[in-house]
Design a protein that fits this description.
Radius of gyration: 27 Å
Largest sheet: 3 strands, antiparallel
Number of strands: 5
Strand content: 15-25%
Helix content: 40-55%
Oligomer: single chain
Distance between the termini: 64 Å
Shape: elongated
Number of helices: 7
């Protein structure tokens, strides 16, 4: 009987020890996985922002469609000024301007067209993957575009791309995700990752910045 009690106590102690260690390790594992997924999603949102800014520079508006944005990235181009020569300090002190230097042929400025994809994306990057959320099968970022009016009455083109914590952290510890959502909602912030805004002109800022 004594041996049985000792075995039961040993098992209980081991189980208790495991639960204590697990209670410490579980939040650590979640934080590590959270940071890894966050970094991957932020990278895509930043690329989306770069593409949207380029799109607006050509069409004077943003797009709420990833299909349109991807087609633009693949098929369109951007103007790039190629510079040859520059004004020296002595030229500037003598009153030489770039316009004069161009007229005299001292410097050259040519505008060329470069591929949007080559300009904005790393070599070999799969542009078709841009809408898809890393680590989550088949889920896409939400994206929209529109116009907002500032307090001074100026109408400003805006866009927004975002992903909720529940989506990009799917498969991780559920209670930790709930805690993260509660924390951000108490701060009256979006419970996820977001760049730009459809409600205000925020200079396309990301909420992680």
């Amino acid at each position: 009987m004594k041996t049985v009690i000792q075995i039961v106590l040993t098992v209980a102690i081991i189980a208790l020890g495991y639960l204590c260690v697990e209670s410490i390790q579980k939040p650590i594992r979640f934080q590590e996985a959270h940071e890894m997924r966050k970094d991957a999603n932020v990278e895509k949102l930043m690329l989306t922002r770069d593409a949207q800014v380029a799109y607006k520079s050509v069409y004077n508006k943003y797009t709420g469609s990833f299909d349109t944005l991807i087609s633009f990235i693949k098929n369109d181009s951007l103007p790039l000024i190629r510079k040859e020569g520059s004004l020296t300090d002595s030229m500037l002190e003598a009153g030489m301007t770039e316009v004069k230097a161009l007229a005299l042929g001292i410097i050259k400025r040519d505008t060329i067209r470069v591929s949007v994809k080559d300009s904005l994306f790393p070599e070999g990057y799969s542009v078709d993957s841009l809408p898809f959320i890393p680590f989550v099968e088949g889920e896409k970022f939400e994206m929209g575009a529109g116009v907002v009016e500032t307090g001074s009455g100026v109408k400003v083109q805006v866009f927004e791309a975002k992903v909720h914590n529940n989506v990009y952290l799917d498969g991780l510890e559920a209670q930790e995700i709930i805690n993260l959502n509660d924390k951000t909602q108490k701060l009256e912030r979006y419970p996820g990752l977001k760049v730009g805004s459809l409600e205000e002109a925020n200079n396309n800022a990301g909420n992680w910045e």
